Amino acid sequence: MLCARRLGGLTARAPALLPGRSRRGGCGAGLRARGVSTGWSPVGAAFNVKPQGLRLDLLGERRGLFGVPELSAPEGFRIAQEKALRKTDLLVARVCSTPPGPQTVLIFDELSDTLCRVADLADFVKIAHPEPAFREAAEEACRSIGTVVEKLNTNVELYQSLQKLLADKKLVDSLDPETRRVAELFMFDFEISGIHLDKEKRKRAVDLNVKILDLSSTFLMGANFPNKIEKHLLPEHIRQNFVLAGDHVIVDGLHAEAPDDLVREAAYKIFLYPNAGQLRCLEELLSNRDLLAKLVGYSTYSHRALQGTIAKNPETVMEFLEKLSDKLSERTLKDFEIIQGMKMKLNPQNSELMPWDPPYYSGVIRAERYNIEPSLYCPFFSLGACMEGLNILFNKLLGISLYAEQPAKGEVWCEDVRKLAVVHESEGLLGYIYCDFFQRADKPHQDCHFTIRGGRLKEDGDYQLPVVVLMLNLPHSSRNLPTLLTPGMMENLFHEMGHAMHSMLGRTRYQHVTGTRCPTDFAEVPSILMEYFANDYRVVNQFARHYQTGQSMPKNMVSRLCESKKVCAAVDMQLQVFYAILDQIYHGKHPLRRSTTDILKETQEKFYGLPYVPNTAWQLRFSHLVGYGAKYYSYLMSRAVASMIWKECFLQDPFNRSTGERYRREMLAHGGGREPMLMVQGMLQKCPSIDDFVSALVSDLDLDLETFLMDSE
């Protein structure tokens, strides 16, 4: 997944947690190539040994986090922030006194970059740094920058400097497409903050934005908050599956993989029991989003949220989801019959299929049909081997190599963070990826990509190199054992590295649209496409070696793994359709015709098929309503696009260099600087329809005959 930060009119546009060049073919080609460093070492070996950095760093000069001199201590955030704010004041004065033209857009982008370089870095540090003092300083920096951005979003003179440019047709026609799009994106961000309204309505828009931010934060906290029940209400034999606290049992999740049906049922009913405060919070959040959308000129929040996306509007999203649901219906019913058959076999006394059953029983069916025990696969997927596999793939497809580089003292926040230099064979150094891959206390559990610094063409002609962080939660290596990945971990690594390559290769002139700063339903395409590479035997065979014997992973192991993912996959996809439609209804026409729980019940029974369980309210745990409001469909649409690209461009030869270069040129190079559908069309060499997207997703569920035959050899 991608991590996003919204800076009002100055927006870093990419959600984690998934993913440039100008229209002339890229800034990279016109820049001086950066030379190869003698401090770089092969990537595979660097990840299969413990870092030796601390010993070397004793002699080095302390440089600060990410090489930012001020950030050698927590107090440095205040210094970096003050420096950024002084520069902001100068840039605001400069843009307001500059005659409208291309220079206006360049100054706006530098203003955005100045604030994002502190805010994006602080956004990461506040959740990832192990030291509380750094986290608190970063949190304060986020608040301060947010306050400044709020003021800029209501600065009429700043807004008018951009408006003058876009109101002059002759000037607009003279802009190149990327500059024009960036100017329009800045204007769009201003106007959804209400700056074009009269003074009274503008104040109302600001108040609504603040309220929505507060409600979002409250809802997120509530979505993850555990529920408790008096322990005497639970059968004694299942209590040990939960956390006990005095006379209460604490339930902090759905326990979806628990073998005991009663444990799963109890967890479902207790964890999803409605909380009145959380219910009010959700209703207020949806209502205030609708009010803000109407205030700034949209009929619904969905219409506002989907501006500039592949889908473009909620009508297209609903058409996509309803057609997909229709195509899935027979397969979904068949999957439910198979799951129910397994439940009847294991629990004949209580064989009715309930919402807490599919994840567990589909796992049982997979294990029974295919021998995919993770312990059989892990020895072939050492972290070093997987990183070398990525290196081989990027080298063959794109002419790019990954090198481990020794970080300076103070540059990383934990000694096991690795720093990678991303180097092109002719263009030189493209940027840096910091790999925060290992488990530690208080580290967030999700796998994420963070933009720390966006790429852009600077005034002096040099290119500002992008810097990103990939965060995973892998086990540490030991003296005798390297870090070994399960197949799921390996796929997640490939997924997140897809985002990182998008950041490295989205070498746009403007940081506002660099790399993954693009619409949500496009941002996940490069990362999901990497999952297809991770599941292709020709790719896996390049790197999957037993860490002790050096033996290659047998073909039939890869084919079994791929086919096992298709077991009950229609049910999984149908569940995603249900969630996405629920999200669209919640952000559609207001006032809602029924309560959010009644809408959930009706939508679940129509678009999923399993009965609603009375006195539950799953929507109150639907945390994606905050970061992906009206955009939850994006994952399905991104997967459809990635599937089409894989089948039509890479399936025949996953290492084809000319196809890789076309992928870079058409899809990755523009970041968010071009309409997403134009990029998709450029890659596929046709304009895909909704039916094409649906067919791509459904065909992914079919048995792969080539894989089947390979498994039979």
What would your notes on this structure say?
Cleaves proteins, imported into the mitochondrion, to their mature size. It is found in: Mitochondrion matrix. Pfam families: Peptidase_M3. This protein is of the alpha+beta class and about 725 residues long. Among the domains are: about 65-195, Endopeptidase. Chain P, domain 1 (Glutathione S-transferase Yfyf (Class Pi), Chain A, domain 2), CATH 1.20.1050; about 370-510 and about 525-535, Collagenase (Catalytic Domain) (3-Layer(aba) Sandwich), CATH 3.40.390.10. Helix content is about 55%, strand content about 10%. The protein has 30 helices and eleven strands. The strands form three sheets. A six-stranded mixed beta sheet has the order 1-5-6-7-11-8. Strands 2-4-3 form a three-stranded antiparallel beta sheet. A two-stranded antiparallel ribbon has the order 9-10. A hairpin with a 5-residue loop joins strand 9 (about 455) and strand 10 (about 465). The longest helix has about 35 residues, at about 315-345. The protein is globular and about 80 Å long. The model is unreliable at about 1-40 and about 55-60 (pLDDT under 50).
